[in-house]
Amino acid sequence: MPGLSAVRVGPVEQPAKSAVIFLHGIGDSGAGWAFFAETLTRDTAFSQTRFIFPNAPITNIVANGNNPMPAWFDVYDWNDLHAKQDTVGFLKSLEQVKAFVKEQMDLGIDPKNIVVGGFSQGAALALASALVLPVKIGGIVALSGMASANIDFLTGRNSLNRETPVFHGHGDADPVVPLALGKQARALYSDTCGLQSYEFHEYPGLAHSSCPEEILDTTAFIKKTIA
Q1: Which of 95, 100, 154, 168 has CB atoms 3.0–4.6 Å from 142's, for a disulfide?
Q2: Backbone angles phi, psi at 100, to 5 degrees
Q3: Which of 110, 208, 209, 217 is catalytic?
């Protein structure tokens, strides 16, 4: 069982046949993305989908004066996200992602009907999960995400999700995770790591947030993937 709490929504109709696990960004909580479940369940294709929005642990963030805030891993410099990597925190959170996937499988969900997604820090974890999950899942969603400068620290890497579809959305006006870092992540995971079905979508004028167009595109991707 996962060691973290989560906001859980649905399914509208039992039994659940698919699951979406979505990881929030730094300083947020699972409740901050619960609207996503409401948006998707307006479509009857998601009436038997269970949504899980895990809550990140409270972590002292060096770049925040060592003050605590919800985060999946530490940040050492807001202006240089590659300055130093909290590999220990990152790997610990990846284990939680694995645990949430296993939980849904234990509840009877076929892994091919599970999507792992996230925003910002959560997106970084979602992308990395494609390399380390011990089962092939239905899809990966990364919104405003980046990749670690070096992923050699990732243990248990495998090729099970090499053909798993990936949706990566990014705003071209993002001041927190600039578009260039999003493109670096795409190059790393699609070119270097060999993920073969990697969609990258740019959204004009979008800052470090989501927008209706991105949510619509994400919804269509998930529907195509698991619904």
Answers
A1: 168
A2: -70, -35
A3: 208
